[in-house]
Amino acid sequence: GRLVEVQRKAVLDPVTEFFALAWDCYGSAQFPADEALKLARVVGVNFDTSLRNHVLTLKGNDVTLLDSSARAQAGILGKTGTTLLDDLHHAAHLVRTQTLEAAKAYLERANRIADQDFHQALDTILHVLPAPRLASGPKNSAITQAAADAEALDKIRRFCFAKDIPEPKQWTIDFE
User: Fold this and answer.
1) Rg of the chain over CA atoms, in angstroms?
2) What is the mean pLDDT of residues 90-110?
3) Is the dihedral of CA 10, 14, 15, 19 positive or negative?
4) Maximum Cα–Cα distance for the chain, whole Å?
5) pLDDT band for position 134 (cuts 50, 70, 90)
6) Residue 7 φ then ψ, to 5°
7) Which of 16, 56, 62, 95 could be bridged to 12 by S-S, CB 3.0 to 4.6 A?
8) CA distance 118 to 105
9) Cβ distance 144 to 138 under 8 Å?
10) What Cα–Cα distance (Å) separates residue 134 from each residue in 41, 122, 129, 148?
11) Highest mean pLDDT among 12-16, 78-82, 139-143
12) Could you tell me the pLDDT band of residue 168, with boundaries at 50, 70 and 90?
């Protein structure tokens, strides 16, 4: 039902749009596979060729969205420039395993620094991934790993795009 209410971001490629809408609609890395199939149809992406074992895994009746480290470890990070999500995940993984400067150099080589579609994708993903301070659970759970990606992507936002991309609102909420 929420899918018809969601404003679609035309600048996002279908894989990135799927990933963003999945996080936005389900608020979790894990959700029912039949819902993933419906969402894939909505955004016009082939579940089996573009999503399964690329950005998510299927186990039983559920799918689990993969974070940058899980994709890198499995050797399924796409090539540079394939999707906006691939470039976001490459950059996040570089921040998590190397340095912020390595991520910036990657984005410069990929011609993403001045790319407005990339800016939109980064802003969108930061708004849907769990804020690090709000994520709880075991260190290697899908939710805490997604929050680690969010933290890495926010470091990139602050380092490379602070003038163009504001801090996500959910990151500034005070719970006191």
Assistant:
1) 15
2) 97
3) positive
4) 46
5) low
6) -80, 120
7) 16
8) 15
9) yes
10) 31, 19, 10, 11
11) 12-16
12) confident
Which residue did the predictor score with more confidence, 72 or 172? 72
CA 149 to centroid of chain Cα atoms: 8
Residues 139-148 as b/e (b if ≥16 CB within 10 A, e otherwise) read eeebbbbbbb
Helix (H, G, I), strand (E, B) or coil at 63: strand
Joined tokens for residue 119: 């800016």
- Which burial class, exposed, middle or buried, applies to 64 when counting CB atoms under 10 A from its CB (0-12, 13-18, 19+)? middle
How many Cβ atoms sit within 10 Å of the Cβ of residue 75?
A: 6
Six-digit token string for 118: 């990339």
Flag whether the pTM goes above 0.85.
yes
Is residue 98 predicted with pLDDT exceeding 50?
Answer: yes
Q: Is 99 left (phi over 0), alpha (psi -120 to 50) or beta?
A: beta
94/17 Cα distance (integer angstroms): 22
Partner residues linked to 65 by β-bridges: 56
User: CB of 96 within 8 A of CB of 152?
Assistant: yes
